[in-house]
Input
Amino acid sequence: MAKTLAAPPQRNAPDDRYDWKRIAYLLALSRVLDAMEEDRLVPEKKVLYQFSARGHDMAQIMLGLSLDQPADAACGYYRSRPLLLALGVDPEVALASAMAREGGYSSGRDIGTVFNYPNPGGASALPMCGGVGAQYTPTAGWAQAIEYHHKVLSDPSYEKGIAVVLGGDGSVASNGFWSALTIATTQKLPMLFYIEDNGYGISVPSTFQTPGGNIAANLASWHDLEIMGGDGTEPAEAARLIEDAVSFVRGRNGPCLLRLTVPRLQGHSFQDTQTYKSDEFVASERARDPLPRLKSYLVPAMLSEPEWDRIAADASQAAEAAREAAEARSVAAPETVLKNVFFQDGAMQAMGGQWTHGYTAPEATETPNPEGQRINMVTAIRRVLDHELMLNPRVVLFGEDIGPKGGVHAVTLGLQEKYGVDRVFDTSLSEEGIIGRAVGMAIAGLMPVPEIQFRKYAEPATEQINDCGSMRWRTNNQFAAPMVVRIPGGFFKCGDPWHSQTNEVAFVHSPGWKVAVPSNAEDAVGLLRGALRGNDPVIFFEHRAMLDHAWARRPYPGDNYVLPFGKAKRARTGDDITIVTWGAMVHRCEEAAEGRSADVLDLRTLMPWDKQAVLESVRKTRRCLIVHEDLQTAGFGAEIAAVVADEAFIDLDAPVARLTMPDIPSPHNAVLLEWVLPSVERIAAKIDDLIGF
Output
């Protein structure tokens, strides 16, 4: 009697709530693009940086397809191209970006794996950064902006929006990750942390990044954070987990961390041979490839073998057509690389800043209309912030201690009480988080005004500051993040290495930032108001010694008073010497020039700075002295001296001179401090030396 063979076990049919054909197509397309780069474009030197997404791709595509709200945004990293394909990025654009051709993510200005995608028809990809972990805090800022748009600005289109940040297991050791985690959980923001754990950060095992190698397990007791995790290579499991995580965050239950384990089926980059992995480990990774697992899941339960092959063939054909079109694109004209450092010629960015949301600045004047008695700089700055908060609901102030305390210098005193905690609020103690959060909020159309408590404290935020400034340029005007960063600094009654630093030149050397250094209350009003109504990121430097200095007091110049950047003020007029200065040194230079015929130029802004005014004055007086508080070596005075020597050399009757701090930190003892600062007496003596040369 013949035996009856048992039927094979039945697998659950694919859940028809998911678009499996679309997932299969995008996965096939992602694989073809990776293979095309690895096998052809990199060896042909048409692509110089290549990071394969193989192994990460299937779950990423599922995540991208789940972002279907116009307020949704995601920020990823160099292995996130599958997500972009799912969001709708054309493969031609992806390949053109990889080949650094015109019309890609940056038209050849940035690495092709450093992406951005302003998507007016759906979810956008926020401009990623090249630094590991730098994507977290801007995404937290976008999440907070979602809540602000919905609750404060009463915009219903943000009601279900979420912010998603992608990171590998290596990135969970970064400052940005922990700062964003604190922001998202303390504020209960609609933010999804999507962690792709492939076990290695380049060559370093994940056990070096977090104890035990499992960030989800280590965060199990973290308050107000939903933790999920599982296998990112199993189609049904990955789809379910992603749906659960997105639904949790979209339901306004707070943030969620989803950790999916995935294999990295290629080296960290194309050049990485993975010799640090054993053959057995590499084989185990290949056994977890999500592509054959997806095929096994769909064929024959949903698709026939020919249908699967047809999907793969369609993807291959689309990739080849994209390659041909991308290769046909030209390289951007070299001279265009100088454009889009700042907003210029009315060329509006595609996304970011209040101007793209319909903001129109009120009428303004450069002519002051003095009102009342002289006020100090603290009062003047507070009055501008108060007025702009009242006029513009997109203005948001935040930083350490700026709420009930009113800031350590009392500049924001009373503003939280007047405008509420949604618009004026304290933050956790993380400058990375303060500036990174501001970046995301600015991209979302707000005008953030973050405060860094003292100049030296900006150093942990250096990466976010630099990335923010370069955003417009490196995305070729796709994105910009206008904001005003208020930073007190400089000496006061005493000095010290931690609170008294100026170092303005560091911001000048960060492309894309405008830098204001007002010396008095009137100029502070005009420059701050212009910055708050502008379309570029601004560093607004508030010198501690001038905040309540009698000389710096001026009558309030009016609510319509706005000063342009790059226009110096002639504080004194004379014929024998030009003195160029800014900030706290203006007062000292004016005193030193008493009884002498000197042009004293207060630059007021260092980026841009008024070259024309300086050169015109030097050609008249034939002498130039530059006075500043910052260190001499590589201080901004060196730039001014170089320009004068280069463009007005034949007009000079004496060498260009500088009077500055020596190359040391600011000393604490008041006697020591005054000995190293440019004093009125030393400035006067230097003026006399140059006039008598």
The two ends are 121 Å apart (CA to CA). Residues 67 and 116 are 16 Å apart (CA to CA). The first strand starts at residue 73 and ends at 75. Residues 1-10 have pLDDT under 50 and may be disordered.
